[in-house]
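Input set for joint prediction.
Command: fold jointly, output tokens.
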Amino acid sequence: MLPLNPALLSGEDYLFARIAAAAAAEQLRCPHRPVLSLGIGDVTRPIAPVASEAMRTAAAELASEGGQRGYGPAAGYPFLQRAIAARYDGLPCPVTPAEITVTPGSKEAIGALFSLWDCQVPVWVCDPAYPAYRAAAEAAGHPVFSLPCREKDGFLPRPEAVTQPGLIVLCTPNNPTGAAMDLPEMTCWVRFAGESGSLLLVDTAYAAFLTGEALPRSIFAVPGADRCAVEIGSFSKSDGFTGVRCGWVVLPEKTGCGAAWRCRLGSHSNGVSYPVQRAAEAALSPTGLRQRQQALAVYRQNAENMLHAFRQMGLTCAARRPGCEAPYLWVRCPDEQGSWYWFHRLLRECGVVCAPGAGFGTMGEHWLRFTAFGDPRTTAEALRRMTRLFPAKA
Amino acid sequence: MLPLNPALLSGEDYLFARIAAAAAAEQLRCPHRPVLSLGIGDVTRPIAPVASEAMRTAAAELASEGGQRGYGPAAGYPFLQRAIAARYDGLPCPVTPAEITVTPGSKEAIGALFSLWDCQVPVWVCDPAYPAYRAAAEAAGHPVFSLPCREKDGFLPRPEAVTQPGLIVLCTPNNPTGAAMDLPEMTCWVRFAGESGSLLLVDTAYAAFLTGEALPRSIFAVPGADRCAVEIGSFSKSDGFTGVRCGWVVLPEKTGCGAAWRCRLGSHSNGVSYPVQRAAEAALSPTGLRQRQQALAVYRQNAENMLHAFRQMGLTCAARRPGCEAPYLWVRCPDEQGSWYWFHRLLRECGVVCAPGAGFGTMGEHWLRFTAFGDPRTTAEALRRMTRLFPAKA
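tokens >
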């Protein structure tokens, strides 16, 4: 047999596949108590009516004589590139439509980006972080190093930890900790990248959960970031598109990587489904932006209820900066037992699924991630069940 | 600046990007004569009404309280896996739904597949062939070798040319030559792969253009292929889905690669858009299969008209096996000049775009590829214009 990519032979399933398998086993063990998930960060609210309507119109077009379309541009249709670029208007680094690539989502974009650089370039990944960063970097053959995100630093990584130039993956607000960078912290990273010859890959999948002005929604809020940063955006969490599949990459020409990226795109992609791109365009219209707020309000309310309930239970939640309404709560395990222990105990005793912090990196051990993307009634019932395990303090 | 992937630094644009740029330049030079394309193999007929309707229904579902869906399975929804697996019913190698991965298309699937093996595994690519095979294999770091497809062999590759085990990329019927393998030839490849420890990656994007029983539509028509072959399928050409984006991979468990493939899928993909998967399911329904015939008949008639016209012009077309109605005509350049010379001459003198054979590999030099996927009136007009350059023989 031909030798396989060694990075794919760990035998260890992707974190969320392990979680799903454990939840399914519990449901079999105890069939009369529905397992409730606060684990995988999947949305539960419908997509915006205007996005659905745009997709339906596009699907009808494709079946009509005059509306048929074949291959779209590999980087996305100009109508969507323009709509996305407009979201960056007014920032210190201008973003042009030609610098936008429409993608099927962040996970797919990150995998593609890692193959853009020589595989000997080191990749720096936050610990804890979304596990696909490390898995995709290793699958592309890169050496991967950890950037510890310690509680005493507000779970934010520190440039001093980077000992050699490379690709530095950041996510703000962070998954799983909910930590969000402010402008001085972002500026510090941009300066460090510029001086060290590193490149920042900034995942903004949760930027819609930032409010106010203190916590920037884009790395391009920092002057000079367009020489040393690539941004990855997604409609998944802001617009309920986890099953629709659409996101984008901003790869500024000033990074000098544009030609190689276009070369890769040409041979690896025929672009994103046309009706999906029309749905994404509609999601960014004034009506779409108004309609998305309904779902976001539900998730924010969930997060608030969870925070309140966890405090009542005597659990410690990671601090959240004002303006950061991240859809994940990062909760310390109540004793010295590990996060998989508490994951299994919550599943067995309450039928509630969370995500064990250890699955996001060694620094995530002794923490649990709870998602606020659930259905409000499911979330309330999960909290009620947890109260039996952690009786409210007097 | 961090070093980029050397395979992406050739500075040479993807073949079809070069063709499109030349066509656009000609349209500017001669604005009153529309440039007519028989170049890029893009479909021009609308998608089936039943596929469009399924996509519209799914888009409406996603916006409803009861119909909302989040992440789908990374390998695709079971409803589509089952519909695709059913297409293999009755073949000597049974294909189960769990062995099907739904993909956004063949190009995307091929890029993903190459990263499944150690990058030192050699990749054998037909010459001439679809240029994305070589580009994607090189981008994944594999050494790439050519399998010459000579006119005297009916433009089919021969196992004797493979001097060390590796991944062998085959496409039947072939793009660009239209050559299709019969069962004994396929059997010969399966036997060779089994004996040498190689693995066949078989692209069947054009299988819908095979009729009758002599030319198999799948490598799994050969007993034992499930131990040494992966098949890549697509809805692009059979169902006009080039802009909808859907295809599939059959990766049999007996190849021993299933676990690594699932590991890669988990960290690189969140599956294909749900409404797209519903459209693909509808395309495989009895109504969808009936409706697709309308478009296929148009393309077949185009191919027939082109073959007739080219012969009238005194041009030599590669022979087509009975039962192979491949949507590409492979035409010998009329003199010793190269294929880019004739590409530019046809473009300049007739305003007609073809694809120069040299773009598909060195063995493609002195040949031109013409696509039958055009609009029938455009195709007829292009043929009329060409007649002025090649007056009909007496």
